[in-house]
Amino acid sequence: MRNKSEIRNPKSETRRAAGHRLVRIFGFGLLSGFRGRAGLLLALAFTAAAAAGCRRDMFQQPYSKPLESSDFFQDNHMASRPLVQHTVARGHLEADEVFYTGKIGTNLVETFPFPVTREVLERGRERFDIYCSPCHGRTGEGNGMIVQRGFPPPPSYHIDRLRQAPVGHFFDVMTQGYGIMYSYAARVEPADRWAIAAYIRALQQSRDATLAEVPAEQRAKLEAKK
Ligand code: HEC
Questions:
Q1: What CATH code is assigned to 97-225?
Q2: What's the confidence (pLDDT) of residue 76?
Q3: 54 with 19: CB under 8 angstroms?
Q4: pLDDT at 7 over 90
């Protein structure tokens, strides 16, 4: 068993020592530099305030960052442990194949793993505008700002092939990447990937919905505008 002072981070030790020294030098400098009572009081107040910050044992506890090198474990010389073989980290079971891959076996799914509500679509729009619109454009036409500045253009979401693609395809493209488009798995949570897929469906729908598909109350409004 190591005692506390051995495992204390040497860096913070030296920083602490340097801090003490500074306080002493400044305190002394101020004490000798200020004349009169007001000056003395000011100098004392400063020294007290600065010295109060010195004992910070509970604030600066010894700790290691996960990938930092460390001699504590002799097998991998890192502060963190490798995952134990044949185990699954808590929260990473990912047993729901459809939800995490958009597929059943090798077949892309045609339906969403949860009901698509207005909230889901709004979340999807927000995430789409953040992560996808720079290339795909806000309307999914493939003319986002990065493309306008020279990035290879992605296909429009409104081409027949993508309109007929099963929704699992969109989830899969975000999860795995596609061609020169890299994966968004690390940046967009699975539930958000589904929300984005739902919003892409809404974008596609917005291009060829018929008046008959508009709910009756809104249809009246549209017709009044004509
Ligand atoms: C940095 C630019 C960029 C961003 C950001 C981007 N994409 Fe793409 N995307 C592309 C390019 C380029 C292609 C064409 C890739 C190819 O065919 O090699 C593409 C292709 C696609 C396709 C069509 C795949 C097919 O079957 O042809 C889909 C769907 C897609 N992206 C969805 C998304 C979604 C959803 C997001 C946001 C999470 C996103 N992309 C973010 C550049 C981007």
A1: 1.10.760.10
A2: 82
A3: yes
A4: no
Q: Which atom of ligand 1 is nearest to the CA of 178?
A: 15
Q: State the DSSP code for 132.
A: T
Residue 65 pLDDT exceeds 70: yes
Q: How far apart are CA 215 and CA 208, in angstroms?
A: 15
pLDDT at 191: 97
| Domain boundaries along the sequence of the chain | 1-82, 97-225
**CA–centroid distance, residue 135 to ligand 1 (Å):** 7
**Could you tell me if 147 and 203 are in contact, meaning their C-beta atoms sit under 8 angstroms apart?**
no
Whether the per-residue pLDDT at 70 is higher than 80: the answer is: yes
In 3-state terms the chain splits into helix, strand, coil percentages (rounded to 5) of 55, 5, 45
Give the position, in ligand 1's atom list, of the atom nearest the Cα of 133. Answer: 5
CA-197 nearest atom, ligand 1: 35
What does the alpha-carbon distance between residue 4 and residue 95 come to, in Å, rounded to a whole number?
42
Give residue 6's pLDDT: 47
Helix, coil or strand: residue 59? coil
Question: If we measure between CA atoms, which residue out of 137, 124, 123 comes closest to residue 201?
Answer: 124
Q: Which residues line ligand 1 (CB under 6 A)?
A: 131-132, 134-136, 146, 151-152, 154-155, 170, 173-174, 178-181, 184, 188, 196
Both tokens of residue 104? 């059943």
pLDDT at 135 over 60: yes
